[in-house]
Design goal:
This protein is of the alpha+beta class and about 180 residues long. It has seven helices and five strands; from the N terminus they run H-H-E-H-H-E-E-H-E-E-H-H.
Length: about 180
Amino acid sequence: MAEIDLKKLDISLEYIKRMAEGHNPINNEPLENDSVLNNPNVIRCFYFIEDVLKQVRDVDGKIGGRKKKKVFPLEHLINYTYRRDLSISHFVDQLNEGLDETIYKKLGYGKITSWLKAMDYLVEVEDTEWNKKKSIPSAKGKTLGIYTEERESFQGRKYLAIIYNQNAQEFIVKNMENILDGIIE
């Protein structure tokens, strides 16, 4: 992926904008009416070039790059209202509802569960049946409102789902800034 000199890109954008507006790109003086740069087709071309250069600028000068999405906006959590006890994935889906995914990154549950582990609300234990580690609520987590519920998968295998009640969900929402920043108290 090629990278463009952003300083030169900004200067080029300014010059193209001036020409599209009918001005000399160097001194910004109005062009004469009979100048070839005042031709409507040329002006449309300049506006097109300006749009393309702005897109390159939006991806920090990386040709073929993608525009970076902004981090999950904490103000989006104002819309949160408790509905029912949920697993972490369903709870996070609810928090992401209505989020403009073209602008913002969706919230994932990984940071939340990592933070809950670091804060001793969840602990990792060895699951001998599945031969892997799994998280379960600690005594502190159970007091907060995190509990387990036995469920059955589509294949008929039983597993332990971790469920978050109203208190646990509201606690997570209240601490989301610390969770996203990785602040452990």
